[in-house]
Every structure is written in C-alpha cells, then in structure tokens.
Design a protein that fits this description.
The complex is a heterodimer of chains A (about 120) and B (about 120). Chain A is of the alpha/beta class. Chain A has helices at about 15-30, 80-85, 100-110; strands at about 5-10, 35-40, 75-80, 100, 115. In chain B, about 30% of the residues lie in helices and about 20% in strands. The longest helix of chain B has 14 residues, at about 15-30. The chains are: A alpha/beta (about 120), B alpha/beta (about 120). Chains A and B meet through helix 1 and strand 5 of A and helix 4 and strand 5 of B.
Amino acid sequence: MRNILVLQRHSPFNNSKGREALDLILALAAVEHNVSVLFSGDAVYQLLPTLDQPDFKLKAYPRSFKLFGLYDVDQVYVCSRTLTERSIAADALSITVTVLAEDGIARLLNEQHQVITA
Amino acid sequence: MTRFGLLLTSDGFASQSVPAMLLFAKTALNHGHHIDHIFLYQDAVNCAAANIDLPADEPDLSAELAAFCRRHNIPLLFCVTAAEKRGVVSNTLPARTGYTAAGLAEFAMRQADIDKLVQF
C-alpha cells in the first residue's frame, strides 16, 4: 500500500482531466492505496454544486465525488489560497474537505510515495 | 537501483512528452535503474492508435516508444477505457503493435511495486 496524492488542477468542463482523474482516484482506492486528493487552482470549481440543467450536455461527474466515502477516500483537501483568490467559502463546496495553507500542502506532499497530476 | 514507473498523460503529438520520457527512460536504464512499466492515460492513449500515418519528415514517436519498450522488455500499457472513449481502439480496431491494453486497476496495483513514479 502506497501513499498516493492525486492533484486536481483543472476546471471541470473545459477538458476531460478532472473526470479521468476521478476514475483514477477510485481505481487507486479500490486496490487499498492510501489515496489523498488535493484540489487547487481552477479545480476548486469541480467542487461547486452542480444543478440539474437538462440543456447542459456534459456529464455532471463532480456529483460522483460523493463516492469518496464509499471508497474510504477521506483525505480530501483544498488549497486555502485558491479559495481566497476566487472568493469561494469552504462551506459552499459540495463535499466536506479539509482546507490547507501552503505549509499544510508542503507536509502533505512530503508524506507521499507517489504524486499524480490530473 | 531505483524501480521507476512512468506515467504519460499528455498528448504525444501536442507536446515534447514522449521524447522527454524516452530520454529519461534511456538515461535511467544506462545508470542501472529499472523501468517497471510505462502507462498511458488521458490524451496520451492517442499514441496507441494503429492507423497513425505521418508525413515522411515527422518522427514517429509512438513507434519509437514501442520499439524502445520491446528492446528493453518494458510493459507498454494504455488505459483501454480512455482509448475506447476516444475511438483509438475498439472490438474491431486493435491497438498499435507493441501497445498492451490494461485497466486502471492494473496501473493501481503496479504502484505497489515501484519506488518512484515519474509523470510526463
């Protein structure tokens, strides 16, 4: 079992990176790795609630972040500076996350065997 | 000796990722390290397309990567789901010679057997 951090760095609906990173996170967790996820930069927009909009033609995959609990992915982090810069409150996010400042992110990175960037 | 896993996620035709990875892999082997696997995910799965047809003056990096892995007996794996989504492979369209279909689960399991993962 390895400590593996997946870095989510991209906004949700401009490319497939966030969606495919979710698949990867669940696959890593399914084989019992100790998986952490860090949302930074425009990736925090993946954590805003998605509304039911029948005219919106992309899969609202961020709803599947609710599966993190089922897969025992409970180390879900978001960069505090990212939230401040975008005027997003942590309690406005669709799932419960831990907010980390730079020193916390540095410690998190230091604990990992592998880091994968989405 | 370090056991490396290499992860390629960027499009092999849109960036220098494949030549950079090949340079890294050759250098690592020359220094006595081990490459456990190369795994292609996201847009990198385009490298596994069988029908790549390039003009004569453009290097075929995808073929070079396959030849390198064959020469050194390195598993060259691509995520079959990501490839099927992009139409790169299907039931009637096999992958390019040298590229092996795999699942994310295989990638996940291989992470237990390496010391370092390097992503391109």
